[in-house]
């Protein structure tokens, strides 16, 4: 459905019995998605983030729906924290119908994660990749039981700002990768990784529907938290198509809840439910996707068991 026809209140089906996990569910697009999903009676929604107070606000906001919502602390910039969060979820649930990877950071200053990886790549890609890997057994068993388990990874058309030569600069991912226009190049690299990882996930686990989605250019805390210069760049390049969070959540809600037969596994969708034709060479590169998967496995192997 196009954005002008997709109405979450009417078009999200009954979600009875489904268990949902939303990263970044305490604010922004994640929190707005939880509010809409809760109206359709899922069995339970879990939200992750770093701010328990913000989580309490979301839980109170949806209380009248009767949908149980629980908070799990998770810092995507710490692999140990991600592992604890995944293990906590698995201690509480034996099924997972929808994993919505909505959390992320954008155009931040140069820095490293707790594990020594470039901070945007470590947060946006590596943290989510570990969460997905730790939850794969639950997703697979749910897919076998119900025939429909989904992973929705938020990316961005900003992936096109990735490093121009190689798409992902694997050799320097354990540095801050500083350079001209560096904050946006690092962001593009991490968003390219989200797109490629979703596609490779669909190839390796075809019983799980895995897609990446662009929400649009959304006026959320990600933009508000940028420096004045970076905010100016966003507004100068996107003011004509900036959308509200209520509009921005539609693509991820569509991907998570619409009829499975209408979704191409591994695809990248622009708002809303529009199969993207704007992939560049790096985004189409299956060998790069395979290399990313293998590099990620090597980086995360000690956290898999």
Automatic annotation (TrEMBL):
It comes from the Eukaryota. This is Oxidoreductase, short-chain dehydrogenase/reductase family. It holds the Pfam family adh_short. It comes from Aspergillus keveii. Keywords: NADP, Oxidoreductase. Belongs to the short-chain dehydrogenases/reductases (SDR) family. InterPro entries: NAD(P)-bd_dom_sf (IPR036291), SDR_fam (IPR002347). Transmembrane segments: none annotated.
């Amino acid at each position: 459905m196009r954005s002008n026809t997709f109405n979450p209140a009417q078009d999200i089906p009954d979600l009875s019995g489904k268990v949902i996990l939303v990263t970044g569910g305490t604010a922004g697009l994640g929190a707005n998605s939880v509010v809409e999903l809760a109206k359709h009676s899922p069995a339970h929604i879990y939200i992750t983030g770093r701010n328990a107070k913000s989580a309490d606000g979301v839980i109170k906001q949806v209380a009248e729906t009767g949908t149980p919502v629980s908070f799990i602390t998770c810092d995507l910039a710490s692999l140990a924290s991600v592992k604890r969060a995944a293990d906590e979820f698995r201690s509480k649930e034996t099924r997972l119908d929808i994993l919505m990877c909505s959390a992320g950071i954008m155009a931040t200053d140069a820095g490293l994660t707790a594990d020594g990886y470039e901070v945007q790549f470590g947060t946006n890609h590596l943290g989510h990749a570990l969460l997905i890997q730790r939850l794969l057994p639950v997703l697979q068993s749910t897919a076998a039981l119900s025939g429909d388990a989904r992973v929705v990874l938020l990316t961005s058309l900003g992936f096109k700002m990735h490093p121009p030569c190689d798409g992902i600069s694997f050799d320097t991912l354990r540095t801050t990768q500083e350079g001209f226009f560096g904050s946006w190049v690092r962001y593009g690299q991490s968003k390219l990784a989200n797109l490629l990882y979703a596609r490779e996930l669909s190839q390796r686990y075809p019983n799980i529907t895995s897609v990446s989605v662009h929400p649009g250019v959304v006026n959320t805390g990600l933009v508000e938290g940028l420096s004045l210069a970076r905010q100016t760049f966003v507004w100068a390049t996107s003011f004509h198509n900036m959308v509200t969070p209520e509009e921005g959540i539609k693509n991820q809600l569509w991907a998570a809840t619409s009829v499975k037969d209408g979704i191409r596994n591994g695809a990248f969708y622009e708002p809303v439910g529009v199969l993207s034709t704007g992939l560049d060479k790096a985004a189409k590169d299956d060998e790069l996707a395979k290399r990313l998967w293998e590099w990620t496995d090597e980086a995360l192997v000690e956290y898999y068991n």
